[in-house]
Amino acid sequence: MNIALSNIAWLEPFVKVAKGENVAQNVQLITKTIGIPLVGILVFLMLWSAAANSIDTSLGKFPGPAQVLEQSKNLLAEHFAERERAEAFYQRQEERNAQRVKDDPTYVPKIRDYTGKNTYIDQIITSLVTVLSGFLLASILAIPLGIVIGLSANLHAAFNPVIQIFKPVSPLAWLPLVTMVVSALYVTDDPVVPKSFITSVVTVMLCCLWPTVINTAFGVATIPKDLVNVSQVLRLNWITHVRKIAIPASIPMVFTGLRLSLSIAWMVLIAAEMLAQNPGLGKFVWDEFQNGSSDSLGRIMVAIITIGLIGFFLDRVMLRIQRSVSWDKSATLR
């Protein structure tokens, strides 16, 4: 698929400079959007490298940028090596089953899963699937609840005490109860998904609920009076009022709640994985800490940077979605 360079927003100033259009203005824009952030990153890397050289730990020097880059390459190499071993395992299994069936046509082949260790990439995927599952479940519950509460003063008065009580409770405080409830209710000899996944998803869902409910309710409750009057004049029914008036007008606050929820969920998930030893990036960090090898600190720093980059990426995705569904295309969103 061919994409014109001018259609990619961040490349547009470069295209204009190349064409000689408003060179000074576009160079200034490039410097502001790319040059200054790069300077900030370079200064950070220099300070990090200098500080790392002066810190000695029981496992050696604190890892600097060079060590983190090296461990990143090692983790990727381990991932690809593990994938090759898995592929070789399934190939050998297929060849054995084919030979057994050839020798004995009545033989029913047995397919066994590869039981190798989870790689760093596997842990990243597990954490992403978990956080997005919990976030989506929470959003499905929180957005309708926030709309209903925002449209009714009586419901707001009824639910607000409950929300204010449970809002400040750390989701990690719920983790022991969630673990016990899931263990009691999710009883099966052949689980579709592991209990650890359910536990992490429910924990993430609990931390996502409150910011989305509160911001959605506030956004709906503060709809401009003129829009409410238009709805009354047109005698819109409740569903039409919600669909045509309440949701479009409250989108900025709804997405503020969603972005807060997603960022909190990502932080909570990592901590929950460390505490409960559920698969994911949190468990990877804890395992490396317990490992105590000379490479552990570097690997932990790789995980920390990965966690930050993924959190930033998730927030940018939410911002992009907000821009696409917002009715006010001229609004400045960051």
Give structural notes:
The chain is mostly helical and 334 residues long. The protein contains 11 helices and 2 strands. It has helices at 12-19, 23-53, 65-103, 120-151, 153-166, 171-185, 195-221, 225-233, 238-276, 281-291, 296-325, and strands at residues 56-57, 60-61. A two-stranded antiparallel ribbon has the order 1-2. The two termini are 29 Å apart. The model is unreliable at 1-8 (pLDDT under 50).
Features:
334 residues; two-stranded antiparallel sheet; 11 helices
Radius of gyration: 26 Å
| Low-pLDDT ranges | 1-8
Number of strands: 2
The global form is globular
Structural class: mainly alpha
Topology:
Elements: H1 12-19, H2 23-53, E1 56-57, E2 60-61, H3 65-103, H4 120-151, H5 153-166, H6 171-185, H7 195-221, H8 225-233, H9 238-276, H10 281-291, H11 296-325
Antiparallel strand pairs: 1-2
